[in-house]
Amino acid sequence: MHYAILCYDREDIVESWTPEQDAAVIAKLDVVTDRLAREGRLGPVARLMPTTTATTVRKGKETLILDGPFAETKEQLLGFFIVECASLEQAIATAKDLGAASSTNGSYEIRPLRLLRPEAPRP
Amino acid sequence: MSTLAWIDVALRGARPQAMGALLRHFRELDLAEEAFQEACLRALKSWPRNGPPRDTVAWLVLVGRNAALDGVRRRNRERELPGEEALSDLSDAEGPLAEQLDEADYRDDLLRLLFMCCHPELPATQQIALALRVVCGLTVPEIARAFLVTDVAMEQRITRAKKLVAAERIPFEMPSAPERAERLSAVAAVLYLLFNEGYSATGGSAHVRVPLCDEAIRLARLLLRLFPGEPEMLGLTGLMLLQHSRSKARLDAQGAIVLLEDQDRGLWDRDRVAEALALLDKALRHGSPGPYQVQAAIAALHARAPRFEDTDWAEIEQLYAALERLQPSPVVSLNRAVAVAKLRGPAAALAMLDALAKDLAGYFYFFGVRGALLTDLGRPDEAREAFDRALAIAKSPAEAAHIRLQIDRLTRK
Fold it and tell me: Does residue A10 lie in a domain region?
């Protein structure tokens, strides 16, 4: 089963990291994702650009284009990992590994996912 | 990240918004700062034990307000309020406050706090120093280092600035739409000043003072989150990101200036460029051009050119012409002349410079450009004269070194 591990944190705080702190966090996460890749379990990993770059398209009779993210929340969706896991237990263990490596705050939301177009090549 | 490092970062990140809310509550800068200080001390005690609160800003505002109340009650010999340990189960204590502090309040609070620093009687450098101290929470020695003055001198400057600001009555009601727009544009100007102070380092030896640029970008992003559809805020944030993307390429290993045409474009920060281009795309959709958007569009054309030879000078010249109409200034005309030199040769550009000579008699880059054009035209004596003038008004050793290099090249020819 594929799982999306969605990363939520306060964007204003993550943006206050110094470049060194930021690089250190990414380097520690790389250790975990390298291992997942060796195990053949790692799918796409992405960091979303800041919510300031977001545009929301409200669907409806007339679509509405809005500047900004879909929802105003205290914590924002900042990125995600797609990981192959045998069970929810393994997905939780993987999220724990990622959390322990980054040693930052915020939350991971684990969402099992169904691929609608599994044959589609990656961009 | 260690617990202390995390708390430090969280306090820095929360400071602008928490200070803005505390200022609205206390209506006095000193009291708001004291309350924030006290809240930070309590956070350092409470967060390692109880874990971080979900909403750091709301926690700091609530605890800061209580701490100040505490002081009043102590003075009145009354019973103290429960400690913040009781508040650490934040799902209960924070809820109502977090609702009161919705984004609408935050945005006017932060805008008010920043606007206060833009007091028209304060010289620009003091506006920036005050913003760095009050809004960003940099220490006095940190700010003094950035401006290359002594701690004592900077302390005095900030104290004076605070007194001046305190005497001013800033309305605490919700601003009207035109007031809000006016505040936002004054604040944008100060953010750009702050960025440029870091970027060009007047009087300093370090040519690029990165922390100032980073702070300016952080505040711009914060404002942009609160005003997501403001084309000029999108443009300004994009502009700063684009300029900053070149910071690693602007100086060589010896600290000498590297001109745009000689920069190693592989050193440009592609993440910053990509973010800036995304912001600029959003801005252009509004169809409401302004000076920051046009400048960002010019910077974007440089960022998009894989090599200097690929630069779209025709488009850049047109954008500078548009900027001349939006915001006429001799510096803009000088930049347009540079584009003209690339398009139609040095003679056409030099003719444009003659019209600017009076206005730009004290402007370093004017003489740098003039010298370079005269060099290209094979008029070394006049070029030398221009470079000498540039050397006399260079504001940093890096600027002076760059001109000396041009002079060396002249004599070697």
Answer: yes
pLDDT band at B148 (very low <50, low <70, confident <90, very high): confident
Under 8 Å between Cβ of B80 and B45: no
Tell me the shortest Cα–Cα distance from B114 to chain A, in angstroms. Answer: 17
Q: Which residue range is the domain that position B33 belongs to? A: 3-101
ipTM above 0.85, yes or no: yes
Q: Is position B92 within any domain?
A: yes
Cβ within 8 Å, pair B56-A10: yes
CATH value at residue A40: 3.30.70.1060
Closest CA to A11 of B92, B309, B142, B17: B17
Write the pLDDT tens digit of every residue in A22-41: 999 999 999 999 999 999 99
Global pTM value: 0.86
Residue A11 in contact with residue A112, Cβ under 8 Å? no
Q: How far apart are CA B132 and CA B193, in angstroms?
A: 12
Measure CB to CB from residue B13 to each of A15, A67, A103 and give the nearest one.
A15
Chain A CB within 8 Å of residue B175 CB: no
Is residue B27, in this structure, part of any structural domain at all? yes
> Does A123 map to a domain?
no
- Flag whether residue B4 sits within 8 Å of chain A, measured between CB atoms: no
Interchain CB contact of B1 with A (< 8 Å) = yes
Domain total of chain B? 1
